[in-house]
Amino acid sequence: MPLRGTALLAAASILLGAGAAYCMGYALLSGGTNAWARALGWSAGAVLPWFLMFEAVKRVEARRGAPLGWRSLAVLLAATALVSLGIEEAVDRLIWGSATAPLPLQMLRRVPALLLLGVLLLLRRGEQRPDMTAARTASDAEAVGLRYARAADNYVELHYSGHMRMERETLARLEARLSGRGFVRVHRSILVHPRWVCRIEPGRAPTLLLDDGTRLPTGSRYRETLRHFVP
After folding, report:
1. Are 129 and 170 in contact (CB under 8 A)?
2. What angle do CA 161, 188, 208 make, to 5 degrees?
3. How far is CA 97 from CA 65, 81, 88, 90, 91, in A?
4. Are 216 and 186 in contact (CB under 8 A)?
5. 224 against 217, higher pLDDT
């Protein structure tokens, strides 16, 4: 579950402090000294971007209802790395007026954050496996009584017996969610279940007549799907 509000701020503050403590410890082990203000500035660039990336991944996956692919994660990792290095460069040059550490050393300092991020992403993948079963169960419940769905810009209209509700979703993703439950695409913007179709009204563009009198158009690309319906 993505963190929000106070929880997000608290987690970011804890990680900021932990990163600064790591920076101070690294300096002591290297035989040098550091200031907490400078350590906090380093942590803001080397630690926080990875945390924010993880939270962004959780939000995107929550909206999609499916985990991001590894290619997308790789792109996000590369972009986050550039942001992280850019922040450290800006802090060192603009605030402290000093040169940034060599790139190999910058990357070495980020290893703990990267390892932690990798573990969190792997654990999240493991947690999402039971969620897939839950999503299938939810789709089963959603399919009960659903007569047809019609695309409406960035939404879909879900038509049941006697009522309709709208959901922010694409018809393609809804079709994937309802896969294996008998729904058939008959038009680029319409998905329908054959059980509600009484007959096909012939014509240049055949129309499906539902048992409640609703007429649904069919698209030329989907003529082959008409074999799923009663003649």
Report:
1. no
2. 50
3. 46, 22, 12, 9, 8
4. yes
5. 217
Sequence-separated (6 or more) residues with CB below 8 Å from residue 214:
147, 148, 159
| Residue 3 and residue 55 in contact, taking contact as beta carbons nearer than 8 Å | yes
Lookup result for tokens 């999240």 = 124
Residue type, 152: A
Please report, as a single letter, which amino acid is at residue 148.
Y
The amino acid at 196: W
What's the predicted TM-score (pTM) here? 0.53
DSSP 141-169: HHHTTEEEEEEETTEEEEEETTEEEEES-
Contacts 24+ apart (CB under 8 A), 160-165: 161/212
The two tokens of residue 76 are 């996000």
pLDDT tens track for 146-193: 899 999 888 999 998 878 888 888 999 888 888 888 889 999 999 999
Compute the half-sphere exposure of residue 167: CA atoms within 13 Å on the CB side of its CA. Answer: 13
